[in-house]
Design brief:
Elements (H helix, E strand, L loop, with lengths): L10 E5 L7 H10 L4 E5 L5 H11 L4 E5 L4 H10 L4 E2 L5 H10 L3 E2 L1 E2 L2 H9 L4 E4 L7 H9 L6 E4 L8 H5 L7 E3 L5 H5 L3 H12 L9
Parallel strand pairs: 1-2, 1-9, 2-3, 4-5, 6-7, 7-8
InterPro entries: Aldlse_KDPG_KHG, Aldolase_TIM, KDPG/KHG_AS_1, KDPG/KHG_AS_2
Protein name: 2-dehydro-3-deoxy-phosphogluconate aldolase
GO molecular function, one term: 2-dehydro-3-deoxy-phosphogluconate aldolase activity
């Protein structure tokens, strides 16, 4: 795996798994559609079991944990086999835990001061969240000039229409989103639909940018 989460794929599916039994067919559909990096959010009791199942049964998937907000989450996610970590925000305590984990991580930011503080700590790759609500592409464009060393995975309010605009920015490596894993498709176990949506997402290279 690349040391950079941002270079795995143009789009990282942000997945909520209510039932761990669905994790493997869901991951297989996403990988078949061309999205190998899968962020399983720690928002359900099934999340850690889902990460374990995907890691064991879907070798082409790079499964990570999202909504990581405590050192306990870091430990549990890595023990379950998470290969990267994503947080919606960060503190020094959480950042230290992610750094000690030994796996790539994306701490979340939504302000310039947070970006500068992470750069000061040697972190150059971050999640920009909630992207749409925090200023979207206009905000990220504004950061590119004074802070060109920071790279982002914007997540939050991004869909197939807006993703290309984000991907065209020089300081965006990938975007995160859940539009290719709609809750009704997961509930219906419509893996063919999810694979089709994943394939469409994987084809996004926004504004002529090649992946």
């Amino acid at each position: 795996m690349s040391d950079s989460v941002l270079d795995l794929a143009p789009v990282v599916p942000v997945v909520v798994v209510p039932d761990a039994a669905d994790a493997v067919p869901l991951a297989r559909a996403l990988v078949a559609g061309g999205l190998p990096a899968i962020e399983v959010t720690l928002r359900t009791p099934a999340a850690l079991d889902a990460i374990r199942a995907i890691g064991a049964a879907v070798p082409d998937a790079v499964v990570g944990a999202g909504t990581v907000i405590t050192p306990g989450h870091v430990e549990d996610a890595v023990a379950a086999g998470a290969r990267f970590l994503v947080s919606p925000g960060w503190t020094d305590v959480l950042l230290d835990a992610m750094r000690r984990s030994g796996v790539p991580y994306l701490p979340g930011v939504s302000t310039t001061s947070e970006v500068v503080a992470l750069l000061e700590r040697g972190v150059r790759e971050m999640k920009f969240f909630p992207a749409a609500a925090a200023g979207g592409t206009a905000y990220l464009k504004s950061l590119a000039g004074p802070l060109p060393q920071a790279r982002f995975c914007p997540t939050g309010g991004i869909g197939p229409a807006s993703a290309p605009e984000y991907l065209a920015l020089p300081n965006v490596g990938c975007v995160g989103g859940s539009w290719m894993v709609p809750a009704d498709a997961v509930a219906a176990r419509d893996w063919a639909r999810i694979e089709r949506l994943a394939r469409e997402a994987a084809a996004l290279s926004a504004g002529g940018r090649c992946r």
